[in-house]
Design a protein that fits this description.
By secondary structure, this protein is an alpha+beta fold. About 45% of the residues lie in helices and about 20% in strands. It folds into 2 domains: about 40 residues; about 170 residues, Glutaredoxin (3-Layer(aba) Sandwich), CATH 3.40.30. The protein is elongated, with a radius of gyration of 29 Å.
Length: about 240
C-alpha cells in the first residue's frame, strides 16, 4: 500500500520565519536608534565642553594708538574701551593669504552681528600703508561687506603700525628688501593669525586663520570674554 505525506502548508511553515525576521529587523533598528541617541548626546556634551567658561591667558596690554581709518577720519583706540575686539594684519595687494584670512573674519563679523550685538569690534591694520590709502581700503573693505563702525581698516605711519604688530601683539610682520628677497617671496611677509583683545585692552588669545574651526573658536572665546566682569579701574586709566 502506497501512502503519501500530505504537503506542508507554505503559509504555516513561513510563520516562524517571518517572526524571526521581524525580531531581527526590530533589533537592528533599535540598535541604530540607540547608537544615534548616544552620538547626539556625545555631540551635545562636546559642544557644552567647548562653550563652557574657560579662563583665557593674559598677554600684553595694548597701549593707546591713533591711526587713520578707511573713512579718512582719525581712529583713536580709546573708542575700543569696554569692547572686546579682534585684530589682524594684512595688505590689500596680498594675493591669497589675506583674502582667505579676511574671508574668515567676514564670517566672524556675520555671526557677531547676529549674536553679540554692539559689544565687539574688528580692527584690521594695513602693513603697507604707503599704498593702502583710505580710498583703497574702502574699496577692499567692500569686498567683505565690512560694517562701518564695527570693522575698522587702519592705515598710517608704517613704523608705528609695525611697532603695534611686533612689540604689542608679538606678531611677525616684515617688509622684504628686494636686494635680499628670496625666490617666491613677496614685498611683505606677515602672519595670518588673529588676536583677541578683552574689554580692558589685554590680548587674550591667538588664532590660526587657516584652522577650519577658527570661526567657532573665536566666537566661543568672545562669549567667554563678554561674560567676564571687567576691571572698572583698568578701563578708566586706558
Amino acid at each position: 500500500m502506497i501512502t503519501s505525506t500530505p504537503p506542508t502548508n507554505p503559509a504555516q511553515k513561513g510563520v516562524p520565519l517571518n517572526r524571526t525576521l521581524q525580531w531581527v529587523v526590530w533589533s537592528v533598528l533599535g540598535l541604530c536608534i540607540a547608537g544615534l541617541f548616544v552620538f547626539a548626546v556625545r555631540q551635545q556634551w562636546q559642544k557644552a565642553e567647548r562653550t563652557a567658561d574657560k579662563p583665557l591667558a593674559r598677554y600684553r596690554t595694548v597701549p593707546p594708538f591713533t591711526f587713520t581709518e578707511r573713512t579718512g577720519q582719525p581712529f583713536d583706540s580709546t573708542s575700543l574701551r569696554g569692547k572686546v575686539w579682534l585684530a589682524n594684519f594684512f595688505f590689500t595687494a596680498c594675493p591669497g593669504p589675506c583674502l582667505a584670512m579676511n574671508g574668515k573674519v567676514q564670517e566672524i563679523q556675520h555671526d557677531l552681528e547676529r549674536d553679540k550685538g554692539d559689544s565687539v569690534r574688528i580692527v584690521s591694520f594695513s602693513i603697507a600703508p604707503e599704498m593702502d590709502t583710505p580710498a583703497v581700503l574702502t574699496k577692499y573693505a567692500a569686498r567683505f561687506h565690512a560694517q562701518t563702525g564695527r570693522w575698522f581698516f587702519l592705515t598710517g605711519d608704517r613704523d608705528a603700525i609695525y611697532h603695534v604688530a611686533h612689540d604689542v601683539f608679538m606678531l611677525p610682520v616684515v617688509k622684504t628688501d628686494p636686494a635680499t628677497r628670496g625666490a617666491g617671496q613677496g614685498d611683505y611677509m606677515h602672519t595670518t593669525n588673529l588676536a583677541l583683545v578683552d574689554r580692558e585692552g589685554v590680548v587674550r588669545g591667538y588664532y590660526d586663520s587657516d584652522n577650519p574651526e577658527v570661526v567657532q573658536k573665536v566666537l566661543v572665546d568672545v562669549g567667554n570674554l563678554l561674560r567676564e566682569k571687567p576691571d572698572v579701574s583698568a578701563l578708566a586709566t586706558r
